UniProtKB/TrEMBL annotation:
GO terms for molecular function: GTP binding; GTPase activity; guanosine tetraphosphate binding; translation release factor activity, codon nonspecific; translation release factor activity, codon specific. Keywords: Cytoplasm, GTP-binding, Nucleotide-binding, Protein biosynthesis. GTP binds at residues 12-19, 85-89, 139-142. Transmembrane segments: none annotated. Increases the formation of ribosomal termination complexes and stimulates activities of RF-1 and RF-2. It binds guanine nucleotides and has strong preference for UGA stop codons. It may interact directly with the ribosome. The stimulation of RF-1 and RF-2 is significantly reduced by GTP and GDP, but not by GMP. It is found in: Cytoplasm. NCBIfam families: prfC (TIGR00503), PRK00741.1 (NF001964), small_GTP (TIGR00231). HAMAP family: Rel_fac_3. The gene is prfC. InterPro entries: EF-G-like_DII, EFG_III/V, G_TR_CS, P-loop_NTPase, PrfC, RF3_C, RF3_dom_3_sf, RF3_GTP-bd. It comes from Novosphingobium mathurense. One of its GO terms (biological process) is regulation of translational termination. Pfam families: EF-G_D2, GTP_EFTU, RF3_C. This is Peptide chain release factor 3.
Length: 512
């Protein structure tokens, strides 16, 4: 069963076509039945996914979601695809990073007119840190774009990857005539009033002279596809297409089924855990609260790493120490949810809970394993939180704890002073914070300038920490776990304290 799982994400710069490609992949997999269901802004869509007020107002997605669908491959095998959608907005890199810890491969979407954009590069580097193999999809070739060779060379140069084109556009923009499969020589041609691909494939097509020359150069000038180089993160197969017009989507999903790795071993403190390990283990990479504000629900998303999970079994969260029975695990099929009776390595299950599960928690049968690699990052923006109604202090504390559990914000409680400080990676997270405080917790708050510029987790012996605290009480805080944090007024301040306190470490990351 494990060999039939493909758990992957789509990464791209905003507006490169990720949402449209997601929709077409789900359409091909039969998970949705009408084009437009993923990105529709109607009431039904909002009830299912765009539940957050700020998402409805701005028309953007600021949460990660999971979509599972099945498809039969060319050999008649049923492949289960777990597609983890990631926030496309550049301010959500931390949530996106955690999602990318839960996948085995990724599709990188590039706009044919724009090439590699900043967010694409940032997300690619995250994948590289974990050696996540990448399939590249050059989108929007039915519009005017850059020359294919320029795009391929840019991927190779900027990302330091070998590239292997698997398909080639027959013309671009107004001259677009279809997509050629370089291996089979078959051309998928436009058909119908909308020029959408509806299944017409020709062989032995006479290609325009310029295109024929390009294809010969492409076949001669790039390395052949090597599955080991791809799975090692050294080579990217490149597909050209148009998600909007449904060109190249079938070839893309076939490539994921054929080439993308099944569930991979995951790192722990004692070494990697293989999917074939019999004990049921997994880790929480995301927590989403209040998906239904009427019921104050909270769902923890668990990537199953090993073993066969059965509904009702007891697992012990590393952060809790006592076992919990998982009675109502959820599988996500596009917009629908189903109770999961069982799950295999690579699957993502949602576990309803009341705050007992947190991002970074390991769940296991014996509580002897701890997965690693899900860090918190030092915030880039710090703000003080001021209540408009001082009697709502208790509600604010609950809200900040909830939202920090989700990873939307980090919260710091100063040793001196009563105003709590929130830290975020990007500005949009502050807007999300204020919106959710009001909509979900009925708390009106303002954000004020903080006297601090950055934060660092500090570690050392008890004596070294006590000595440091004696002289720096005004600059010390605790995070929500109670760990000590140095609140610095500048990067220079951090360097100065590091020099003066060689027995302490000042870290910009904290692993959960």
């Amino acid at each position: 069963m494990t060999a039939s799982r493909r758990t992957f994400a789509i990464i791209s710069h905003p507006d490169a076509g990720k949402t449209t490609l997601t929709e077409k992949l789900l359409l091909q997999g039969g998970a949705i039945h009408l084009a437009g269901q993923v990105k529709a802004r109607g009431q039904a869509r909002r009830a299912r996914s765009d539940w957050m007020k700020i998402e409805q107002q701005r028309g953007i997605s600021v949460t990660s979601s999971v979509m599972t669908f099945e498809r039969t491959d060319a050999d008649g095998n049923t492949i289960t695809f777990n597609l983890l959608d990631t926030p496309g907005h550049e301010d959500f890199s931390e949530d996106t990073y955690r999602t990318l810890t839960a996948v085995d491969s990724a599709i990188m979407v590039i706009d044919a007119a724009k090439g590699i954009e900043p967010q694409t590069r940032k997300l690619f580097e995250v994948c590289r840190l974990r050696s996540v193999p990448i399939i590249t999809f050059v989108n929007k070739v039915d519009r005017e774009g850059r020359a294919c060779f320029d795009l391929l060379d840019e991927v190779a140069d900027v990302l330091a990857l070998d590239v292997c084109p698997m398909s080639w556009p027959v013309g671009m923009g107004g001259l677009f005539q279809g997509i050629l499969d370089l291996k089979s020589g078959r051309v998928s041609r436009p058909e119908g009033g909308s020029k959408e691909f509806l299944g017409k494939v020709d062989e032995d097509v006479e290609l325009p002279g310029e295109v024929a020359e390009e294809i010969e150069l492409a076949r001669a000038g790039y390395p052949e596809f090597d599955i080991e180089a791809y799975r090692g993160g050294d080579l990217t197969p490149v597909f050209f297409g148009s998600a909007l017009k449904n060109f190249g989507v079938v070839e893309l999903i076939d490539a994921i089924a054929k080439f993308a790795p099944p569930p991979r071993p995951q790192p722990t403190e004692a070494g990697p855990v293989d999917p074939g390990h019999k004990e049921v283990t997994g880790f929480i990479f995301k927590v989403q609260a209040n998906m239904d504000p009427m019921h104050r629900d909270r769902i923890a998303f668990m990537r199953l790493v090993s073993g066969t999970f059965k509904r009702g079994m007891k697992l012990t969260p590393s952060g809790l120490g006592k076992p919990i029975a998982v009675h109502s695990p959820i599988l996500f099929f596009a917009q629908d949810r189903e109770i999961a009776d069982s799950a295999e390595p690579g699957d993502i299950i949602g576990i309803p809970n009341h705050g007992t599960l947190r991002v970074g928690d390991t769940l296991s049968e014996k509580n002897q394993i701890r997965f690693t690699g899900l860090p918190n990052f030092a915030p880039e923006i710090l703000r003080r939180v001021a209540l408009k109604d001082p009697t709502k202090t208790k509600q604010l504390r609950k809200a900040l704890d909830d939202l920090s559990e989700e990873g939307v914000i980090q919260v710091f409680y100063p040793e001196i002073g009563s105003q709590w400080i929130v830290g975020v990676v990007g500005q949009l997270q502050l807007d999300v914070l204020i919106s959710r405080l009001e909509a979900e917790y009925k708390v009106e708050a303002m954000l004020e300038a903080s006297p601090f510029d950055t934060a660092r987790w500090i570690k050392g012996s008890d004596k070294a920490l006590r000595d440091f605290a004696d002289f720096n009480k005004m600059n010390l805080a605790k995070d929500r776990d109670g760990d000590p944090v140095f609140m610095a007024k500048s990067a220079w301040d951090v360097g100065y304290q590091q020099e003066r306190n060689p027995d302490l470490t000042f870290s910009a990351t904290k692993e959960r």
